[in-house]
Specification:
This protein has 414 residues and is mainly β. Among the domains are: 154 residues, endopeptidase fold (from Nostoc punctiforme); 117 residues, Cholin Binding (left handed beta-beta-3-solenoid, Ribbon), CATH 2.10.270.10. The protein is 9% helix and 37% strand. Strand 15 and strand 16 form a beta hairpin. This is CHAP domain-containing protein.
């Protein structure tokens, strides 16, 4: 059809445009050569969001029609720019033959399925007599569609520049990565390729930077698509994965000489964390503290040899300490345990020996237990601890006998 002007052409060919979307000449936009497989709706957003026929594309086709989509796909996937003058979809086959392009009944990936009933589609896959096509405006709705057809249902297949044959090994179609076996089938789901494991969706597209769930386990596909193994940061959280890429949950693991705990969502425990009936402390990387002091929430904690926080009376080196049920260390306070009284000093260690606490003086044994209601001999001196543990000072009657104690509580006469 000869075009005198865009305005008059639109008026004359309104019906044909509705079906095919052809306007006239084409403009050339170079694009990268990619390999063939189902690509999906990659039609530019700037066009797909417009009304049907709402603009003219780079190939002088009305947007969202079958001709516009196929011209775009030939450019971006086949690296082929449709020459001008192809007209409406029903003319593509005869026009292609007139220009020397092969048109036959043998579909190939990247060829164009052509119907004289004014429609064209891009061939994505071929399986025997079945052909998978990608297209626009199939239902006169200006939308993307994909479907399987019998190869004989089309009037012919135009071979402008067919895609390479199905590869063996890795292939990228410009959008996604795929892995093909020697028999031409694509890897689907969890797949080992060499020493690494990958996950592919139902169409064979490899996941990247994505979480997936399969076989009741969670997996994370890294930036190169391989499944995360071992300790891995994902955003602001760290996770641990087994050698098969399955994420640990509610489980202890050991790695890099450290112990880690994977919580219910799989992220490594950080900071103070209850695991069962015990509490633990983990650094910012998720490594559990052992035989170490830490400070958190204004309290001091001691992680024992198995990593659990010390609770109750605990020896750490040559000093003894007392910790509450949450593992927080007592400081500057009295506590009672095992029928004895203890005093935790300013550094948390239990008071031992002769001590001034407030206005009173006390004596504690080597384990930190306070003496009460008894005579105490210390450093060659004698003291008497009263019922509340405070040392007797001044004149005191004990068991009917009067004694005198100096200001330190030391007995001065008998």
């Amino acid at each position: 059809m000869k075009r005198k002007s865009l305005k008059s052409f639109i008026y004359v060919s309104a019906l044909l445009v509705f079906l095919s979307g052809f306007v006239g000449v084409s403009l050339f936009v170079k694009s990268e050569v990619v390999e063939a497989t189902t690509i999906g709706d990659d039609y530019p957003v700037k066009w797909k969001n417009l009304p049907l026929g709402g603009a003219i594309d780079d190939w002088r086709m009305y947007t969202r029609y079958c001709t516009s989509f196929v011209a775009y796909r030939l450019s971006t996937a086949n690296n082929f720019e449709l020459p001008s003058g192809f007209g409406n979809a029903d003319r593509w086959g005869t026009e292609a033959m007139a220009r020397g392009y092969k048109v036959d009944k043998n579909p190939k990936v990247g060829s164009v399925a052509w119907w004289t009933s004014t429609h064209v589609a891009w061939v994505a896959e071929v399986s025997g007599d079945n052909v998978k096509v990608e297209e626009y405006n199939y239902g006169f709705d200006g939308k993307y569609n994909t479907r399987w057809i019998n190869k004989n249902s089309a009037n012919g297949y135009i071979h402008f520049k067919d895609m390479p044959q199905t590869p063996v090994g890795w292939y990228n179609n410009g959008h996604y990565d795929y892995y093909y076996y020697a028999d031409g089938t694509k890897a689907i789901g969890l797949t080992w390729v060499g020493t690494k494991r990958y996950n592919f969706d139902k169409n064979g597209a490899m996941y990247k930077n994505a979480w997936t769930n399969s076989d009741k386990y969670s997996y994370y596909s890294t930036s190169d698509g391989s499944l995360a193994v071992g300790l891995t940061w994902v955003g602001t959280k760290r996770y641990n994965f087994d050698k098969n890429g399955a994420m640990y949950k509610n489980a202890w693991t050991n790695s890099d000489k450290y112990s880690y705990y994977s919580t219910s969502d799989g992220s490594l425990a950080v900071g103070l964390t209850w695991v069962g009936t015990k509490r633990y402390n983990f650094d910012k990387n998720g490594a559990m503290y052992k035989n170490a002091w830490t400070n958190s929430d204004k309290y001091s904690y001691y992680s024992t040899s198995d990593g659990s926080l010390a609770v109750g009376l605990t020896w750490v080196g040559t000093k003894r300490y007392n910790f509450d049920k949450n593992g927080a260390m007592y400081k500057n306070t009295w506590t009672s345990s095992d029928k004895y009284s203890y005093y935790s000093t300013s550094d948390g260690s239990l008071a031992v020996g002769h001590q001034q606490i407030g206005e009173n003086k006390y004596i504690f044994d080597k384990n930190g237990a306070l003496y009460k209601n008894m005579w105490v001999d210390l450093d060659g001196n004698r003291y008497y601890s009263k019922e509340d543990g405070a040392l007797a000072i001044g004149e005191q009657i004990i068991d009917g006998i009067t004694y005198m104690f100096d200001e330190s509580g030391k007995l001065v006469n008998n």
